[in-house]
Amino acid sequence: MFIKSRLRLAIQKSGRLSDDSKNLLMRCGIKINFQKSSLIACAENILIDVLLVRDDDIPGLIMDGVVELGIVGANVLEEKRLSRYMKGEQVIKYEILQNLDFGICHLSLAVPIEMKYKNILSVKDLKIATSYPYLLKKYFDKNNVSFNSFVLNGSVEVALNAGLSDAICDLVSTGATLEANGLKEVERIYDSNALLISQNNSKISTEKKYIIQKLLTRIQGVIKARE
Ligand code: PRT
Ligand code: ZN
């Protein structure tokens, strides 16, 4: 059960940011017993409750004022911000407190290796599969190039080989997945890493601000030690 005076921090339940997020908290000296099936884990030695959720839910939980802190990829945060903005929904402010040293990747446009790619006009009006339609749209709009996109959440790289799309827009870290699927990166759309984000500062009580500052100082110390 949430106690009002405890700070709420949302992290990814399972996935690429999950272990790094838990490890960061552990290195900050925070004692938490994570149980496999539990949605909430309470720190024993600091007034923080950790909420374990899907990464896509974290920006909304912050923007809607449900939790005070979150650890999420910049790609997911920016996609959510753009989706709310482009749909004309109320965009509640958030703050980026700290760039974290994990979850490093970039969102890229990729096409078949054999395609003769000159510039972005080479994919004008082609069909692009992506999990990030708003980041993709922002990039193409900025370049004033028309395109068609459809959303696939997962296995985006397979879309091309299955004949569903002409190009894909997906996250890349080592590039091995693109290579294994006969694809090459042609446009770098968005650089990303994990972020510690918070609700709008004015919405947070003085007591909770104090806990945030304490956590932030420890996080900065851990990052510095790892440099
Ligand atoms: O279940 P949930 O919704 O929480 O998780 P998810 O499946 O949506 O996300 P997950 O766990 O795959 O990724 C979480 C976050 O990790 C992303 O939003 C990024 O911020 C970050 N991240 C860092 C990555 C990668 N690197 C990455 N390489 N996310 C995904 N990938 C995938 C990419 O989509 C592609 O399939 O890895 C493949 C490419 O990797 P390379 O090394 O072959 O280039
Ligand atoms: Zn996700």
Word description of this protein:
The protein has 227 residues and is an alpha/beta fold. The protein has seven helices and eleven strands. The strands form two sheets. The protein has a six-stranded mixed sheet with strand order 2-3-1-4-11-5. Strands 8-7-9-6-10 form a five-stranded mixed sheet. β2 and β3 form a beta hairpin. α3 packs across α4. The longest helix has 21 residues. The mean pLDDT is 95. The site of zinc ion (ZN) has 3 residues, from loops.
The proportion of residues forming helix, as a percent range, comes to: 25-40%
Q: What can be said about the biggest beta sheet? A: 6 strands, mixed
List all distinct small molecules, including ions and cofactors, that are bound in this structure. phosphoribosyl ATP, zinc ion
Strand order of the largest sheet: 2-3-1-4-11-5
Query: What is the approximate shape?
Result: elongated
N-to-C order of helices and strands = EHEEHEHEEEHEHEHEEH
State the secondary-structure class.
alpha/beta
Beta content = 25-35%
Taking the alpha carbons of the first and last residues, their distance comes to 37 Å
Number of strands: 11
Residue-averaged pLDDT: 95
Rg calc: 19 Å
Please report the number of helical segments.
Answer: 7
